[in-house]
Amino acid sequence: MGLFSKLKQGLSKTRDSIVSGIDSVFYGASSIDDDFYDEIEEILVMGDIGINTTEKIMEDLKERVRKEHIKEPLESRRLLMESIEKRMETEGDLYEFEKKPSVILVIGVNGVGKTTTIGKLSAQLRSLGKNVIIAAADTFRAAAKEQLEVWAKRSDAQFVYGQDGQDPASVVFDAASAAKARGCDILLVDTAGRLHNKKNLMDELGKINRVIDRELPDFHKESLIVVDSATGQNALSQAKAFSETVDATGVILTKMDGSAKGGIAVAIQTQLNIPVKYIGVGEQIEDLQKFDPKAFIEALFDRNADDDEAEDNEEDEAMPEDGGEVSEDDGAVSKDEGAK
Ligand SMILES: Nc1nc2c(ncn2[C@@H]2O[C@H](COP(=O)(O)OP(=O)(O)OP(=O)(O)O)[C@@H](O)[C@H]2O)c(=O)[nH]1
Ligand SMILES: [Mg+2]
Asked: Can you tell me which atom of ligand 1 is nearest the CA of 287?
């Protein structure tokens, strides 16, 4: 299945919860009036987009409807999509770590998908030809190391681990030494699930960070917060809480497939000002996509998403391997696909 089809499929529940409601307003309203706006606003807020962001989206929508003299409700549908997308714009290169030696620390509460995401990310980076080391700095949970080792093998990455219960910072020290000795491009660090308000665990993260700064001063550093999109507002508050204690450079939103609360991507990106860098759309190794707001909105608002998948597959197969801006192997969604 092509990336865009996969994204559409992954967003089907979120689409049901937000867009089908919005569309009944767009297709059902006879004119653009206060009721029309109120109904859309309510659906966006209920769809986990957040009050502040929704207000800004609505202001923008109203202004454009006025300026462009739009009279038909349906004509403003595209404007709404653009208004949401505009709020999600980010600046700078979010994937700098693909271009220079980098260490990526992956953090989050229990069970959100940290270890799985590391496996998927490792596979993407390996497909870019990067030399990847994965460090098992979750020495706390039983079998965490074994689980990670499976992902290291699957993605053909090197693996550095310690003993159960060993100080995670010392595993990171070993991994950093290995990274220097073996000329590695990317060091991925898996950490134990933790609550941001557990002081000893947060101190442990601080210690890991100090080891990284001391041992790999020339490496670009990323701290990615993993949150489970199915938890909606909780995902937002977790990302917020972690970002207050660590220097977060991005969020990874997992389990988009099966979640009706994918709207939280908009809230995280706009309210916390931390870019969503990847979304998880399944449990398999290829089920991690770079987050592209344009593709996200297009997929979410796709009118016939549920019945045109077969058609889409044919298109995807017909596409030449090197035809897109970004190849499938990158796990990224290209703008071209997004605009399809
Ligand atoms: N459907 C779906 N499941 C996912 C996704 N990402 C992770 N999972 C599943 O979520 C479960 C937990 O994943 P882990 O990677 O073990 O989570 P973790 O954060 O490392 O958990 P702890 O180490 O216990 O804190 C597993 O069953 C994964 O297969 C996703 O994008 N979609
Ligand atoms: Mg884990």
From this structure: 31
pLDDT surpassing 60 at residue 100: yes
State both tokens at 292. Answer: 């592209």
SS3 at position 290: strand
Q: Which atom of ligand 1 is nearest to the CA of 118?
A: 15
Q: How far apart are CA 242 and CA 195, in angstroms?
A: 9
Strand partners, 106: 190, 224
List, for residues 29-39, the tens digit of each pLDDT value: 999 999 999 99
Residue ranges lining ligand 1, Cβ < 6 Å:
108, 110-116, 138, 141, 144, 193, 254-255, 257-258, 280-283, 287
Question: Is the separation of the CB atoms in 229 and 264 below 8 Å?
Answer: yes
8-state DSSP, 109:
S
What stretches of 138-185 adopt beta strand conformation (E)?
158-160
Kindly give, in sequence order, each residue whose CB lies less than 8 Å from that of residue 237, ignoring residues fewer than 6 positions away.
none
CA distance 86 to 80: 10
Q: Please say if the pLDDT value at position 336 is more than 50.
A: no
DSSP 8-state class, residue 18: I
- For residue 111, how far is its CA from the centre of ligand 1 (angstroms)? 6
Cβ 134 vs Cβ 122: under 8 Å: yes
pTM of the predicted structure, to 2 decimals: 0.89
